[in-house]
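Table S7 (text form). Paired inputs.
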Amino acid sequence: MRIRQELSDRLSRLSPGPQLPARDVIPIVLEAEIAGDQPPVLVHTGDQQVVPTVGHESNAVGDVAHDGAELHHAVLAVLRPAILVGDLPPGIRLIEEEVAAHLGVSRGPVREALGILRDEGLVTIAARRGAVVVGLTPQDIDDLYDLRIVLECHAIRRATANVRDADIEYLRGLDAGMVARARIETVASPDVAFHRHLILLARQERLRSAWERIAGIVGGLLSVTDGQRPDLVLHSHLIDALASGDGDTASAILHVHIRNAHRIMRGVLLSRSEAGAR
């Protein structure tokens, strides 16, 4: 009973349960584009367009398909950031019924979301105990940002040889969407799509595979830091450097961009730690 009450209290402090949003007006890029030299394929659905998920690592509520089968993405959008910042701390049990009741969904989407969090190393799942939060240490988070720099800065240098006008148009569209939305809602969904596209442009399957393994957590981190970021304008400079074929400049800008996000995340963690110590 005490365990259930602690979880219920913590869940009540999180963001409200997921509401399926209007479709995001940004284009789909098919994963198949990495296989050849074709420019991105933008897939439209009527007069609306959506960002797809790649694998199971959707990163924000804006990524969800609009049917009940995809509700686990909305569950992830609440649980993953809460774990990353310590609102759901290591050791706490995530009881399916409690999480489902708080978010207003059935247990199925919660179970699927917990399985993804297990694959990301954020929870463990054991017989009779269920899901228990493992979380990430500050050092883990530092390491993730270091890894992003290694992967993405390498990718953008490679991307300069492959980028086409359609790629630049797509990236500018995502950037414009982020700037327009920054004051009213999370920009994590198009932000992840932006960085994923840089990886795809490198045309290296093993590089893409390595990045996709951390894409879910990257999205969770972005959902914490986006909206607080003073460096969104760096996306436009980054695109300009990429369009001009200047891989060194593009890599340098991207390095600063990721480090700014890292600095903001460390500030968030520090403020949460200080608040918890009071």
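Next pair, protein 2 of 2.
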Amino acid sequence: MAVIRPIVRDVLFLSRRSEPAAPQDRAVGRDLQDTLQANRERCVGMAANMIGVNKRVIIVNVGFMNVVMYNPVMLAKDTPYEAEEGCLSLDGVRKTTRWQNIEIEYLDAAWKPRRQRFSGWTAQIVQHEMDHLEGIVI
């Protein structure tokens, strides 16, 4: 059964740093999948705080599929550039600095460690969602 959560627009809540996710938080990843799918025409990634859960869980569309990442950590980054981004939780667009290439370590839904490199648009989405985990609202 799909669980589509409302999108949080409370900047005070979104500005809080997220707590580490635990195996019992897997349902948050499923809710993110359902909510992202429901908003797919205007959204390519989400963080758990966007659906009211203060846990370190994100979902990112990587073209052909959505990837849920629990407790993602950036291991490497290079080639900064300026970007303009919007957010489902905010009105308008804002300027920010992003990295062209990143390497992330995270836990998947089976709670197995994964390491992945992202470039370009996908890297930008991952960075935006990871900012949410730190309470950074662009």
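The two ends are 33 Å apart (CA to CA).
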